[in-house]
């Protein structure tokens, strides 16, 4: 009860803080504050930072014809400016106003693409440049737009006449001053970090006094030290955030060098930690493990970032600050969540997946978590975040962590995670020829009085993954048959894997490649049920799951095994 009261108090404190932030943002966008954003217009862009994100000239052509494939949705404008039409999809609008799509125009390299880019920027300045409100001026979106305008200023300004050149720089200066005033009060998380990155880009790319660069560098360093953990993960525990932030930090480091400025040690250290962390979360097919908000992976994006990783060794096996473990041998990769939920402030995408794991062999995934449909309908998100969507155990069909369902709260904060494990213990048990760990969480203690302990061991050159799930009361008290001790251990099977039954009634997981895995359990007969895989590149897909269902008062510990019976010749993980 005390824990629930504490979570509720913290939640409403966050609601009050966010309400106050939005009130102050409206005030700062009003006429009393707007004069603060006026000032000297820079004369030119000194340097255009590089952009590491993938570009496609074909998308530039689509945009020229009025088709905007943004944020997983295609919108046809029918000859109108995209800034004139009302599109109800929030993600599409944020992407539109973020202007990262300018990279496709730059990649096209034609005068037509440059003219179209210039026309669209001009439309935005005319329609939104002097009216600070709405999605266009959300601080996170403003930060993306500043970075994009600086990175792709060569294509926007190519062939521009002086009035547009001046209007572009004036609007850019206003946005920078606005973002500088808003950043301190932004909610915690990646948007605030990106805002600090954008201000550092601006101080390097535009004529500015040395004090402006010193201030931007100092603020960026403080944010990096706070948000990037010692093992390179992000405080949100979302692998995608590591990828997204690296895509901004690497060009920023290069921009410091190009301007003969010394980057802060916090920037160098963050990149040096984050690149190995990105490889930690990566399966051999190039995709990232589906934990805490990770959806489908565009493999080329990761390869582009990892080209900047000079270590080129095997990934680390232990990420204690981020709360993950990795087992890797014989072309087999196991990645498991063994951490506490992230802080409430940064938990909008967090999942109730404590002790969940994923198993891949070579380039084929076998056991997965459902992940999220990044661009899908919001109604699916609660299902994807629930414990049942992960390869771990649930008790009484209840998630190990709780999410808010209040419309008032969700309108302000999204849907933060407000309850979950308070203690997660994890110990590596590596031996010669064996990699493993034992972890335990107390997420079910407040409601059901159970601890969940999971042990995973990978051995025999990756041919055997042995698992043990144990359920016990604190102090090893007897588990009673009270109708609240029903356990379900789930193993979600990737939709590309065939789940069959052999002549010995064993479950066989057969991928498109040569590997075949057999699932066995000694105490409980496994069952097969329908499931859904949200993280497909084309959207959600039907899949299946192996289920061990039992009562903890009758079976307090269940042991299971996945055995590779036919092996493809895969190289070691890298």
TrEMBL record:
One of its GO terms (molecular function) is lyase activity. It is found in: Cell envelope. Its main location: other. It comes from Mesorhizobium kowhaii. This is Heparinase. Residues 313-561 form the Heparinase II/III-like C-terminal domain. Signal peptide: none annotated. It comes from the Bacteria. It holds the Pfam family Hepar_II_III_C. One of its GO terms (cellular component) is cell envelope. Transmembrane segments: none annotated. InterPro entries: Chondroitin_lyas, Hepar_II_III_C.
């Amino acid at each position: 009860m005390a824990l629930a009261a504490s979570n509720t108090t913290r939640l409403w404190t966050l609601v009050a803080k966010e309400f106050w932030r939005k009130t102050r943002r409206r005030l700062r966008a009003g006429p009393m504050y707007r004069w603060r954003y006026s000032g000297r217009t820079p004369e030119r862009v000194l340097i255009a930072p590089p952009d590491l994100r993938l570009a496609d000239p074909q998308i530039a052509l689509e945009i020229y014809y009025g088709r905007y494939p943004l944020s997983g949705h295609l919108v046809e404008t029918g000859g109108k400016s995209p800034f004139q039409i009302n599109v109800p999809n929030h993600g599409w609008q944020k992407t539109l106003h973020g202007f990262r799509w300018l990279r496709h125009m730059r990649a096209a390299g034609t005068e037509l693409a440059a003219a179209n880019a210039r026309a669209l920027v001009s439309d935005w300045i005319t329609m939104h440049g002097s009216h600070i409100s709405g999605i266009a001026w959300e601080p996170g979106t403003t930060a993306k737009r500043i970075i994009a305008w600086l990175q792709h200023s060569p294509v926007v300004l190519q062939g521009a006449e002086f009035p547009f050149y001046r209007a572009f720089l004036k609007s850019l200066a206003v946005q920078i001053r606005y973002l500088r005033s808003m950043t301190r009060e932004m909610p915690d998380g990646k948007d605030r970090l990106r805002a600090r990155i954008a201000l550092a880009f601006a101080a390097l790319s535009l004529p500015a006094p040395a004090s402006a660069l010193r201030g931007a560098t100092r603020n960026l360093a403080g944010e990096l030290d706070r948000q990037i953990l010692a093992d390179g993960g992000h405080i949100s525990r979302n692998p995608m955030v590591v990828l997204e932030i690296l895509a901004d930090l690497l060009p920023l480091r290069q921009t410091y060098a190009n301007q003969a400025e010394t980057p802060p040690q916090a920037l160098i250290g963050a990149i040096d930690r984050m690149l190995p962390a990105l490889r930690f979360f990566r399966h051999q097919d190039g995709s990232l493990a589906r934990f805490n908000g990770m959806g489908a992976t565009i493999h080329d994006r990761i390869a582009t970032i990892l080209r900047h990783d000079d270590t080129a060794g095997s990934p680390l096996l232990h990420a204690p600050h981020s709360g993950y473990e990795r087992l890797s041998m014989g072309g087999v990769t196991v990645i498991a969540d063994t951490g506490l939920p992230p802080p409430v402030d940064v938990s909008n995408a967090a999942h109730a997946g404590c002790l969940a794991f994923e198993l891949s062999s070579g380039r084929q995934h076998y056991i997965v978590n459902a992940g999220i449909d990044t661009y899908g309908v919001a109604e699916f998100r609660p299902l994807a975040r629930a414990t049942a969507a992960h390869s771990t155990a649930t008790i009484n069909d209840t998630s190990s962590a709780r999410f808010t369902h209040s419309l008032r709260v969700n309108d302000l904060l999204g849907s933060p995670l407000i309850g979950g494990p308070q203690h997660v213990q994890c110990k590596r048990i590596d031996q010669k020829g064996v990699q493993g760990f034992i972890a335990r969480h107390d997420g079910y203690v407040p409601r059901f009085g159970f601890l969940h302990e999971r042990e995973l061991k990978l051995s025999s050159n990756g041919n055997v993954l042995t698992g043990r799930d144990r359920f016990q009361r604190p102090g090893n008290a007897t588990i009673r048959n009270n109708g609240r001790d029903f356990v379900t251990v789930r193993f979600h099977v990737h939709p590309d894997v065939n789940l069959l039954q052999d002549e010995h009634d064993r479950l066989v997981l057969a991928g498109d490649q040569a590997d075949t895995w057999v699932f066995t359990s000694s105490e409980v007969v496994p069952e097969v049920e329908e499931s859904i895989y949200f993280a497909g590149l084309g959207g959600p897909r039907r899949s299946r799951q192996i289920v061990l269902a039992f009562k903890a008062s009758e079976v307090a510990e269940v042991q299971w095994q996945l055995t590779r019976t036919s092996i493809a010749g895969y190289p070691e993980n890298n």
